[in-house]
Design goal:
- With 227 residues, this protein is α+β, with helices and mostly antiparallel strands.
- The protein is 41% helix and 16% strand.
- The chain has helices at 36-45, 120-123, 125-135, 145-151, 154-173, 177-197, 202-212, 217-226; strands spanning 16-22, 28-34, 49-52, 57-60, 69-76, 83-89.
- The strands form two sheets. The protein has a four-stranded mixed β-sheet, with helices on one face. The chain has a two-stranded antiparallel sheet with strand order 3-4.
- The protein is globular, with a radius of gyration of 21 Å.
Length: 227
């Protein structure tokens, strides 16, 4: 596609910012990024595809929730370094269940739009929890345990993972099923906090697990050594 050659991909580090707008209302729904392949997929299918920096992969908007974006127009700005995507939005654009990702007033610190759809079932509890943890990064650490972990010393956060792992192993040793479930949930939560502190999405763990299917443990270890 000749139009893609107008974009200086090297200058953009391979990613171009994309402002997504509802075609009928003009409302700005979200800001995301595309690499060249995502732009090509979007143009070929007329369905919005983006490159997720946290997931480190291309994703079709709505692949989990079904809230896809049908593309009505794609506009390149005057500097050839930003795309405006005009779409027909199915459902909501934001993972929080709101129509738009822009819902907090910086003047009043209030949420100006309400949740329209409960997205927990669509995205899964792990992904939803990860996003909630991300949103608590700047909360008052006196009022939020998650914020306290994120804003405190890294060693304190990591010690909690070791502590919870120890308690989990004792629950296994004691054959206490309720404690096994409880302590496993504690480990997962604290691991997600640590991952959020480094902006590593749980989707990348899912990708790694999927990569290992059909591969023996020896092969998997050798593949890490070779890479």
């Amino acid at each position: 596609m000749e139009i893609l050659n107008k974009i200086d991909w090297q200058k953009m580090d391979g990613l171009i910012p994309v402002v997504t707008q509802e075609a009928t209302t003009g409302n700005v729904l979200m800001l995301a990024y595309m690499d060249k392949e995502a732009v090509e997929l979007t143009m070929d299918t007329n369905i919005a595809h983006y490159f997720s920096r946290s997931k480190q992969r291309i994703w079709k908007k709505g692949e989990s929730s079904g809230h896809i974006q049908e593309v009505e127009d794609i506009l390149l700005d005057c500097d050839n370094d930003t795309i405006l995507l005009k779409v027909k939005q199915t459902g909501v654009a934001c993972h929080t269940g709101r129509k738009s990702c822009f819902f907090t007033s910086m003047k009043t610190n209030e949420e100006v739009t309400k949740v329209e759809i409960d997205t927990t079932a669509a995205y899964g509890v792990i992904d939803t929890l990860y996003h909630v943890i991300q949103e608590k990064k700047n909360d008052d650490p006196k009022a939020s345990y998650t914020a306290k972990l994120l804003q405190g010393k890294e060693n304190s956060m990591l010690k909690k993972i070791v502590e919870e792992a120890g308690e989990f192993t004792f629950a296994i040793k004691d054959n206490d099923q309720e404690e096994i479930v409880y302590e496993a949930a504690d480990i997962i939560y604290h691991m997600l906090v640590a991952m959020a502190s480094k902006n590593v999405s749980p989707d990348r763990v899912k990708q790694e697990i999927a990569r290992r299917f059909g591969m023996s443990g020896i092969e998997e270890k050798n593949s890490r050594v070779e890479s």
